[in-house]
Amino acid sequence: MKRLFWLVLLPVLAGCPEQQEPAGFAGLAGVADPEAEVPFLQPGPGDRLSFPADFGPHPQHRIEWWYLTANLETAEGDPLGLQWTQFRQAIKPRLADAVPPDSGGWPLEAAWMAHAAVSFNGQHYFAEKLARGDVGHAGANAEPPAVWLDDWQLSELSGNGTWRLQVSADNWSYDLSLQINGEPVAHGDQGFSAKSASGEGSMYFSLVDIQIEGTVTLGDRTLAVSGKGWFDREWSSQFLKTGQQGWDWFALHLESGDKLMAFQLREEGGAFRSGTWIPARGEPVALTPGQLRMTPISGPDSYPRQWQLEVPDYGVSLKVSAPAGDYRNTGLYPYWESPVAVSGSHSGVGYMELTGYGN
Amino acid sequence: MTLLAALFSHYRRHPLQLLALATMIVLATMLWTGVHHLTSQARASLDQSESAVAERQQVTRADGEPVSVRDFVALRRAGLCVMPWLEVASPGAGRIVGVDPLAAACFDRSAKDNEPWRGELDGAPFVDISEAAGLAIGQKGQKDSQGVLSLLLSGPDSGSALPSGYRIAPFTVGPDTGELGESFLLNLDALGMLVLLISALLLRSVYLLGLAQRRDSFALLHRFGVPGRQINRLLLLEIMVLALVCIVPGVWLGRWLATGLGSGFGRALEGLFDTPLYAGQDGGWLVPVATMLAVVLVACLADVLRPLARRLSVAGRGQSLLPALVLLAGIALSVWASALAWLFVAVAMVFVAAGILAPFLIARLADWRAGGEEDPLSRWRHRELSVLARRLALPLVALQFAMAMVLAVQALVTTFESTFDQWLVQRLEADYYIEVPEGADASLAVDWLSGQQELAAGLWHRVIRGQATLMNSVGESGPVVDVFALGPIGPLVTGWQLFESVGAPWQSLAEGQGLMVNEQLARRQGVTVGDTLSLKLGHKAIDFPVLAVYPDYGRPAGEILIPASALPTDFETGFQSLSISPGTLSMETVTSGLKQIWDVEQLTVRDNRAIESLASAIFDQTFLLTRAMTVLTLILAAIALLLMGWVFFSTRAWYFRLLVVWGLPRRQAATQLTRLSLSLTSAIALLALPLGVWLTWILVHRINPLAFGWSLPMAVYPRFWLELGVLSVLVGLSIAVLMRRQLNSPASAPESASALSGGER
Amino acid sequence: MVDLLLAVRGLNKQFRSGTQSVSVLSDLSLQLGRGESLALTGRSGSGKSTLLNILCGLEKPDAGRIQVLEEVFDSRKPAGSRQAEARWAALRRRQIGVVFQEANLMPALSLLDNVRLRARLAGQADDKCEDWMERLGIGELADRYPDQVSGGQRQRAALAMVFAMKPALILADEPTGSLDRHTAEAVTRQLFDLQARHGCGLILATHDAELATRCNHHLDLGHQPET
């Protein structure tokens, strides 16, 4: 549940006219005639996930991302947070099976943005990359899974369910192997995750059990790291409704083996909340807005670093705290992305993302 | 009442004087800050356009094939920060450059201002690369118009991880205008100094006026036992406080003005390399404030330079000999000086002398005419003019300097513009310019072109570039010069302007009877037509007679022009190209023919018209800023003269009113005053003329050759003279209007006939 | 009075001072014949200079009728003010000589040139100018400039200028006010002497009561202006 703000980036480029939202129910329009204007698809209740195709890009959706957060430890046991995200923003929708435009024409039907960050010892390292789609230096693939932008890439290691993630910024880099365990967890209604009371939403699933090992290089220091990761896939054509100011998102690994994803979209006089309770054993449960309580402990004017998260139905009452430091990702569109420590009814670690708090 | 209050009480009684002084400081600060701002902007915009058109690096394929999207992807995936640059010659829009702003994001962010493709791409020449590619594809019929793709490299260090199969090459998109620009900036700096001098003169004039009027109170204080030194210290304090109070708003206004002007110009030249011209440059406060404070202090407390100052303020009778000698010496020095420093000394000498002499000359001339005048009223007017000239000496001189400066700058700028345009037209006579690819045999092209019936003879030539070593008389190696070899010698060059030449120089050149040298080489080596140059072109030295000297603005090095046929076979060719005006033949035929004989897929073809307009546009911008700066100076000088005239006439209003008391109808009295002020301003405009022409000559003919080794043709522009004449009439009329107001309001009788009360003669 | 030179009736003049208006001259009437002299006395601010300015057209009265020679200026008949101004200018040029306490001379002209200028403006030949200077005892100072001579000499030159124009009426505003007693006496004597000899009218504003007694008439403008 992230990165809605990227919608404003593309009009900057080459004066593309803002695409109109497709009318009518999602999935019904514009498939028959390839000559007709292809509309953007808007996910809705009843849409289903499809694997492995949904690891790849969705060219008829306006926006999507591949998102990894990781709570790692160095050999000395110091915590290290890590993020990698790649966004795709469509400027012009295209049918999933359409032939992509010729790269020689430098098409501008989609743009890509990648973010990478490392949080260690109170320091936050962040880098950003941009590219246009369909040229070749940025893209994504479902089978075998691959996501890349320049020399940053997520790729599968020899088809054994292990992925490799390589990122290299100016003065720091990381190279990780990701052991994917378990099945994808579908959020919301079998993958359709509502983002407002009136029914808009996105398709959203996560890989929540990822064992990570590798190295992180900061300056001339190379650290061996290991720990767990959380991988999100999400796509839609619209997220923030008018009046929604921003969102707060949490993905928590609890020591009990349970996991919790929770988010809220803040709007005038309240918030739309949703989440998924993923018990150590048993099926994940979608949490309705009434089942979740999310309370910032510090004031609403700057990024709240501490939160109270409660799911009374499951006996969950957590205090979630970011470590000391400034964890803003200061790219084209700044937001907060930090590892968190969890205490209260359960202890654990996780990641927190906050947007729409000004600076 | 404290001493300070006593000292200040003068301004309480004469608030207008305080206002005038403060206004002067504010205006002078505004002017200089504005000029300083504009100068640095001009410098920045020049630097920027240079960095935009030159000094970049690109990645090319080691196998010589043109780069493609695939190469771009391969390099980006390898972690290299390269940006695609797709140049399309569009028949309608001229030269279009397609860039990818997303790919440019990895270019060093700190250098943002130098990268016009950042931010919004709102028109030619920079567009999104997909648009440029669309244009190129749209023109598939004429293959040559298809875009030329280059891959620009972000920084010099990015090349370390260059994958094999690629190499780094320099990337330029326009002619190197660097030195011409440098020369212009040197002149700008010199003019900035003049502006500072003018500001100082204006400040001093207002200050001296105030001081003169306070002399009585100083004397009183002195009689009361206050030591002179203490009075001086307090005066220093007073002027410091006033200066600080006035400089800050002045600096603010100056920057506001410069930004306003600048953004106007920016808008006017939208679309070229100017998008960030006025962005981000906020400049410090320290430099303008410190400079102006120093100027105010020097101008107001320059009494250590008392002899000079006294001469400037009241040009005494019979004291003109020394300044006249200084003037002559300065002019002589300006003619004979052989070093830049001495030239600047000469400029200083001539200006100081002219400043002292001009009011003196006007006064003497007026006195002389008064002496010969029978009509007492005319005699009064001439005598009054004499008083005015002496009393308003400082602001008059400032106006004279400002006018001279405007004259010189206008002439300089116009000269630069026309010379530069003319030279560009000469150099880019051919419509197209085709690079001979590395490894291709240019002589094949020559044979092929010679065989084209439709290509009228002489509308193309082959250019071979390289270097040669100049040999001295005893056979030792001298400096290295650029070689510019042409063949055949045809109408593309025979129209070139030559400084000096033998008879029928081009024919002689075509027949291999010698070579031509550029002005830089001629000046540096003291070569003239008829001399013989010994050159080592290959392994052997050959003697060539010099047939002509040609202008070659902006090139730092010496250059020789020889027919290609005169090159020895072992000459090491650096670079080859063809210049072609295809005439009735289509360019497509030419390029496809050349591609075929050279067996290459792509050719680098440049549209010379596009290069020409690009280069001219870059200079236009600088010229506009310069003009703005000088016009500002002129406006300030005019305002200063108005202000001073007004203050002076206030003190003398009683006497002008006597004319009315004596029965002269007000209208006639006003006419007398108008004639008076018009005589004054026209006289100073007339005196500014020779100074301005001389300054133009110095800038164009002396400073530039000494600094850069090439000269500009000197031209005078009588239209500017006329404009200045009109301006001087306007200033004169404005003064007259102010004076009429004084006539109409009852003046109080002066308490005494002393000079302090306007009773000077 | 046989030969009337100046007749003033019902003259009023007020000055505004802030919101108050100060009456300087109120319902003043006077007459002066050729060859007659009138002394104006009164404290500073009592309106002596204002009256003189009005009598030569440099200031306008609020009300009143003024006749100088044949020219009549009546505030009730507001003929074009420009025309009135032109008639006043013509009068000042040829008929009315004005002498101030100081600064009667153009500083940039020699004494002789000043006298010539004044004579020429009045339409008089300037060959008599040097005579006038001789008669006033400043003949040898002809080529000096105003700032090169004493105050008394400057006032003599001012008298020379006035007489050179052969005026019908002389308006003198404290002409000796800035001179020492001895010089003042000499200058005054010359003034009266010449006035009598040429039969012109003289209005003399002065502080000096003794001087006032020498005139045919005496008008005391009083102490303080009325509020």
Descriptive report:
Chain B: It is found in: Cell membrane. Chain B: This is ABC transporter permease. Chain B: It is a multi-pass membrane protein. Chain B: InterPro entries: ABC3_permease_C, Membrane_comp_ABC_pdt. Chain B: Its main location: membrane. Chain A: InterPro entries: AttH-like_dom_sf, AttH_dom. The complex is a heterotrimer of chains A (359), B (761) and C (227). In chain A, strands 1, 2, 3, 4, 5, 6, 7, 8, 9, 10, 11, 12 and 13 form a 13-stranded antiparallel β-sheet that branches. Chain A is globular. With 359 residues, chain A is mostly beta strands. In chain A, a hairpin with a 2-residue loop joins strand 15 and strand 16. The N terminus of chain A is likely disordered. Chain A has a single domain, classed as AttH-like domain (AttH-like fold, Beta Barrel), CATH 2.40.370.10. In chain A, 0% of the residues lie in helices and 51% in strands. Chain B has a 6-stranded mixed β-sheet with strand order 4-3-2-5-1-6, with helices on both faces. Chain B has a 6-stranded mixed β-barrel with strand order 8-9-14-11-13-12. With 761 residues, chain B is of the alpha+beta class. Chain B has 3 domains: 438 residues, no CATH class; 116 residues, no CATH class; 183 residues, no CATH class. Chain B contains 21 helices and 16 strands. In chain C, strand 4 and strand 5 form a beta hairpin. In chain C, helix 3 runs parallel beside helix 5. The model of chain C has no long low-confidence stretch (mean pLDDT 86). Chains in contact: A-B, B-C. The interface between B and C is medium-sized, with 31 and 35 residues.
